Each structure stands twice: as C-alpha cells, then as structure tokens.
C-alpha cells in the first residue's frame, strides 16, 4: 500500500480516499485486497484516527497495530478481519475509541481468547467508547465485569452477542461515567441489578434477550434515559416501581415479551418525548393496553 496526495494504492488498485496528517478514513469502500503486517499503512505512525470499517479484507488481523502508537480512534467494525483479535491492540494506550464490532448474522464471530478481554483492555485506561458487539468473549459475569472495572472513563459499553454469562458483577458499578450500556443477547441469567438504575449519566440501557427474571427495579432516578429496552426476558410483576413524571427525554421503552401484569400508569403514557412503547401485559387489561398505546404510533 502506497500513498500519494490523497491516493491510495492497494492490491494494484488506485483509490481516492480522505485522509490528513492525523486521520485516515477508508470506511465503506468494500475493499477486498488484504492488509497484512507488510502494509505501509503501519508506517503512518503519526496517525491519531484510523477507520477501516465496512470493508471485505477477509483475512486474519494484522498483528502490528501497536506500531500506530498515537492512535486515539480505531474503527475496524465490519472490516472483514477474521479470527483472534491481536494483542497489539492492547498496547495502544492512547485509545479513546475502540470499535471491533461485527454483525454475527452475516459473519463468523471474532475471538477474544489469547488475549482475553482483561488483557485487551488492561492498558487502555483512556477508553471512553468500547464496541465489541459480536466478538466471542465467552466470560462469566465476574470475569468480564472485573476486566472492565478499571476503565473509569468509559462512557459507552456495547457488547451484545458476546457469549457473556451472568450475573452482572457489582464491580461494573464503578464505571460511573457510563451513559450507554448495550448487552443484548447474552445469557446474563439473573435479576436486573439495582446498580443499573444508579448510573447518573445513563441515556441508553439495552438488555433485551438476556434471560433476566424477577421484577423491574425502579428507574425513577434515571431521568436522563432516552432508551430503556428490557424486552424478550422473563420479567414479571408490574411497572409501577418507577415514577415516570420526571422523564422528559425518554423516547423508546421496550418491555415486550415478558410476563408483566397490571395496568399502565397514566404518567408513563404522558411522557411528551415518548415515540415508541412496546409492552405486553398478560392479564385482562391487555385489550385496554393495546388501545391506550395506539395513539403513540
């Protein structure tokens, strides 16, 4: 790979790409030519941002990402890399954003075995945005929560479809800056931890299809929420534990396909910002609930 005044030569093809002294963006080009350790990409050691998302490299990860030691932003989501995530990424100590996410419906999951999650992030103390959706982490609640707990600046945690198990360990509660938590389609198998309602900056909590059971705790103090998605679980009881009167930003509530009962509070339906409400009530009030929700659509 050679570069010349904004032109990239890759696999015999000349591509026009956007880049600057510190940023290199090749996202969405559907490039199929492989990138390996011999690529001159790894000579650009001044780079602060590298975006190779949405390509079709279809090869194992290069192992020398640590050559790009000044990176603050690394996006390899849906880039087509396969297999084990390399340990070199764990040495990028200036990273603020790391996106290795993948849609497992269309691709084989990536692996985090050697290194595992703890080794990958143990030196990334500046991380604020972490996206590992679709990566096979295969860790217990104690393991993955404690691996993440030193990342005290983390704001976005997105690890859906990661083969995580539960219960969610209390060490996760140390990440007070978290504003987004997405852990959908993992087998967390527990009650919803009370501390999940106590993150002061929380705007999105998405925990659908994680095998949660028991009652829904009160989210009355989570007034910055925009999305609350707890669908496709085994939750039971009512939704009256939360006082909805203080919610002025909430746009999406997903509680469908649970075992909830009772009625809907008028204050819930009165949230002016609400755009989508998905709710299943398994008692005689079901017909009324369907009628009351209809005006939201």
UniProtKB/TrEMBL annotation:
Its main location: membrane. It is a single-pass type I membrane protein. Keywords: Glycoprotein, Membrane, Receptor, Signal, Transmembrane, Transmembrane helix. It comes from the Eukaryota. The keyword Transmembrane helix applies. It is found in: Membrane. Pfam families: LRR_1. Coiled coil: none annotated. The keyword Ribosomal protein does not apply. InterPro entries: Leu-rich_rpt, LRR_dom_sf, RLP23-like. This is Receptor-like protein 7. It comes from Gossypium hirsutum. The lineage of its organism: Eukaryota, Viridiplantae, Streptophyta, Embryophyta, Tracheophyta.
């Amino acid at each position: 790979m050679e570069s010349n005044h904004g032109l990239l030569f890759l696999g015999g093809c000349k591509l026009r790409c956007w880049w600057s002294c510190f940023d290199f963006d090749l996202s969405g080009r559907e490039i199929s030519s492989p990138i390996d350790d011999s690529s001159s990409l790894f000579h650009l050691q001044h780079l602060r941002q590298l975006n190779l998302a949405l390509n079709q490299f279809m090869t194992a990860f290069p192992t020398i990402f640590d050559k790009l030691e000044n990176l603050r932003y690394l996006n390899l989501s849906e880039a087509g890399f396969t297999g084990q995530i390399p340990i070199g990424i764990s040495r990028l100590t200036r990273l603020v954003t790391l996106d290795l996410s993948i849609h497992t419906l269309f691709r084989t999951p990536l692996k985090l075995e050697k290194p595992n999650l703890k080794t990958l992030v143990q030196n990334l103390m500046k991380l604020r945005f972490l996206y590992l959706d679709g990566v096979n982490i295969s860790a217990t609640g104690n393991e993955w929560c404690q691996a993440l707990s030193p990342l005290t600046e983390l704001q976005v945690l997105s690890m859906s479809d990661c083969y995580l198990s539960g219960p969610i360990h209390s060490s996760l509660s140390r990440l007070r800056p978290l504003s987004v938590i997405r852990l959908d389609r993992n087998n967390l198998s527990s009650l919803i931890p009370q501390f999940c309602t106590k993150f002061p900056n929380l705007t999105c909590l998405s925990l659908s299809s994680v095998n949660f059971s028991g009652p829904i705790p009160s989210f009355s103090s989570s007034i910055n929420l925009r999305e609350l998605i707890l669908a496709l679980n085994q939750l039971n009881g009512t939704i009256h534990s939360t006082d909805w009167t203080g919610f002025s930003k909430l746009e999406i509530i997903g509680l469908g396909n649970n075992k909830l009962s009772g009625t809907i509070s008028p204050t819930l339906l009165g949230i002016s910002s609400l755009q989508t409400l998905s709710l299943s009530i398994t008692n005689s009030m079901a017909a009324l609930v369907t009628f009351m929700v209809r005006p939201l659509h």
